[in-house]
Amino acid sequence: MDPPVVSVVVPTRGRAAYLEVTLDSLLGQRAGIPHEILVVDDGDGGATADAVRARPAVRYVPHGAGRGLNAARNTGLREAGGALIAFVDDDVLVPPGWLQALAEGAARHPDAEAFGGPIRARLEGHPPRSCGREDPPITTLDLGEQDREADFVWGANFAVRRAAVERIGEFDESIVGAHGDEEEWLERLRAAGGRIVYLAAAGLDHRRTAEDARLRPLARAAYARGRGARASDRRRGREPSLAGELRLLAGCGWHTVRRGCPQGLIAGAHSAGRVAEALRPR
């Protein structure tokens, strides 16, 4: 077998039903490019191990215990054989041309060391109504229809050259919150003169099932992201004042009432998470 040109690493923990959809979409890639797919299980096996072992073309790499997303990424880096390592979340749906677009994009930009692509929200079932003024309630990215240099890309659709990791170092495993994990590495890359390129053709869908696309689970996840975002700001010395956080929370409440907008509650949950983290004793 030819050595892989691209290694696709999927960190996961306890979400076998989502993972199965992700893996089937990765196994359906049309590209003739030599590649491998690795699942790094940051949980305790069980249904996750069964889901991977039912797909013999996918390699299963267990952690044995939860060590965090960046630890799982580092394990994937050490186990992968490709010069280009792509990370996707375990809750994405990857179109058949994604791998080809990623590899061709990396070849077009030989001086870039990290890459990202569009991330589109795919909310199944009947998600809360939006008035159109809010961002989607899950992570997305859209920097346009052309390749361009970027300050950041997001970990749901993210690739790095192995040479960049050897130059910059691995991901910071002390970051275990719901925010800032890949950003810290990208900041180090940029500080060392590295380039990040957004590949417009290498897009994928970020999924929520009908059950998870309801108001309560979306708000619960937004609250956790808000806490993580505030902790990330604190780590970088960029945290806004508590008064500013409270003003933003009040604005979310006003928006929800004035516009009759259920998704305003999700934005409010994110803001409430930031306030709760600001009040947490240090």
If you had to describe this structure to a student in words, what would you say it looks like?
The chain is an alpha/beta fold. Helices cover 41% and strands 17% of the residues. It contains 9 helices and 11 strands. It has helices at 16-27, 47-53, 69-79, 98-108, 162-168, 181-191, 215-236, 242-259, 263-279; strands at 6-12, 35-41, 58-62, 84-88, 92-93, 114-116, 119-123, 148-149, 157-161, 196-198, 204-208. An 8-stranded mixed sheet has the order 3-2-1-4-9-6-10-8, with helices on both faces. It has a 3-stranded mixed sheet with strand order 5-11-7. The longest helix has 22 residues, at 215-236. The chain is globular and about 60 Å long. It starts with 5 loop residues before the first strand and ends with a helix. 42% of the residues are buried.
The strand line-up of the biggest sheet is: 3-2-1-4-9-6-10-8
Number of strands: 11
Fraction of residues in H or I helices: 40-55%
| Chain-averaged pLDDT | 94
Structural class: alpha/beta
Principal-axis shape: globular
Q: What Rg, in angstroms, do the CA atoms define? A: 19 Å
Strand-residue proportion: 15-25%
Low-pLDDT runs of 5+ residues are none
Q: Specify the biggest β-sheet.
A: 8 strands, mixed
Question: How far apart lie the N and C ends?
Answer: 53 Å
Q: What is the string of helix and strand elements? A: EHEHEHEEHEEEEHHEEHHH
By DSSP (H or I, 4+ residues per run), the number of helices equals 9
